[in-house]
Write a structure and sequence with these properties.
Helix content is about 30%, strand content about 15%. By secondary structure, it is α/β, with parallel strands linked by helices. The strands form two sheets. It has a nine-stranded mixed sheet with strand order 6-3-7-2-8-1-10-9-11, with helices on both faces. The chain has a two-stranded antiparallel sheet with strand order 4-5.
Length: about 350
């Protein structure tokens, strides 16, 4: 029987940059002609947002936000190393990177021998962006898992080589951040499990921020993402299959939660923090029904497209009866997206884990 560690973390791109760049998207939004005039003045923002922006346009808040995120990434890496997995399976969104106009699968497993990628430009580590980083794949196991999921009724796409991009940023950022101090490398074979989280905006918006000067019509939008229920069940099936295997497996969801640039009702200025708190509370309580019953419309309304990666992870937790033992909500109103972390180790011999630790921040 296999042992499974479940981890949830972020791949927030500005974490690879510098503090003064972290509020760059908000600054850009403030210049948009369609932004209501009163929202261009911080005096009219939500109180917590004003506090984070302060009188330095969020610079001090950026340092605190980074410290919170790096602390959780270091703790996640510690849990990963303590567990010593045979491989890591990671759910992440592909934002018009490997999958583009020629094919958008609802979900796809990469059964590649290896993955090669480079550090992002102008990164905080001072690394040459032409440097090549290589991590091993696990193609044999990836094919076995794909076969078993198809037999369970999940028509999973798969590939043996990249199409347009060597590895999407949901995956390579997570790998980079799990070695944020650049001391350990990443010795674990990786199976990327891409989810079409961006759904109706994956081609229309090219998986990124919208054109704020042009609201997309229904005719311009794409077909939707898989439903949260389908992805919850996919995660449960993945855990069920791997639990029967001989492997020690780390299952990781890599994503932010609601994104300002996807939250139309907030004029793309700040994320839907209350909606994120609702799902976080359900995660902490092991309220699996709230997760499985989430609708695609609710996801889009809250700008929570990337939370679909967590739908897979929470489905796995539910199947294993393995709620998170450590968890943290790293909230923000000015740095685009809420971030959540969760660590759910296998049950101990007596069937019970240690008491939960909640380390949430604003």
């Amino acid at each position: 029987m296999g042992d499974i560690l479940a981890l949830g973390l972020t791949h927030y791109p500005p974490l690879s940059g510098r503090d003064e760049q972290m509020a760059g998207l908000l600054r850009r939004m403030l210049t948009m002609p369609r932004l209501p005039e009163h929202l261009k003045d911080p005096k009219n923002w939500p109180e917590e947002m004003r506090q984070q922006w302060a009188n330095d346009e969020g610079l001090a808040s950026a340092a605190r936000h980074r410290a919170d995120l790096v602390g959780w990434m270091d703790r996640s890496r510690e849990a990963l190393d303590e567990f010593k997995p045979d491989f890591v399976l990671m759910w992440g969104d592909d934002q018009y990177e490997n999958f583009r106009e020629d094919i958008i699968p609802p979900f796809a497993i990469s059964a590649h021998d290896e993955f090669n990628f480079s550090p992002p430009a102008d990164n905080v580590w001072g690394e040459d962006p032409t440097k090549k980083i290589r991590i091993a794949g696990a193609p044999k196991i990836a094919k076995e898992l794909t076969t078993s999921l198809i037999e369970e009724g999940f028509d999973v796409a798969y590939s043996y080589k990249p199409l347009h991009h060597p590895l999407g940023h949901a995956f390579y950022n997570a790998v980079n951040y799990l070695d944020y101090g650049r001391e350990k490398g990443f010795p674990y074979p990786l199976i990327p499990f891409a989810i079409n989280c961006y759904g109706r905006r994956v081609i229309a918006q090219r998986g990124g921020s919208p054109n704020f000067d042009h609201e997309l019509s229904d005719d311009e939008l794409d077909p939707p993402a898989p439903t949260p229920k389908r992805l919850f069940d996919l995660g449960a099936a993945t855990a069920r299959i791997l639990k029967k295997s001989p492997y020690r497996v780390a299952l990781i969801a890599s994503s932010g939660w609601s994104h300002a640039f996807l939250t139309m009702k907030n004029h793309y200025l700040y994320p839907d923090v209350p909606a994120d708190r609702k799902m976080y509370d359900a995660l902490v309580k092991g309220d699996w029904d709230t997760w499985r019953n989430l609708t695609g419309k609710e996801v889009e309304d809250a700008g929570q497209q990337e939370i679909l990666n967590w739908s897979c992870l929470v489905g796995a937790m539910s199947e294993l009866n393995q709620p998170p033992v450590e968890h943290g909500f790293v909230g923000t109103w000015i740095f685009n997206s809420s971030k959540v972390f969760a660590i759910a180790p296998p049950k101990t011999g007596d069937g019970a884990n240690a008491a939960q630790k909640d380390l949430a921040t604003a």
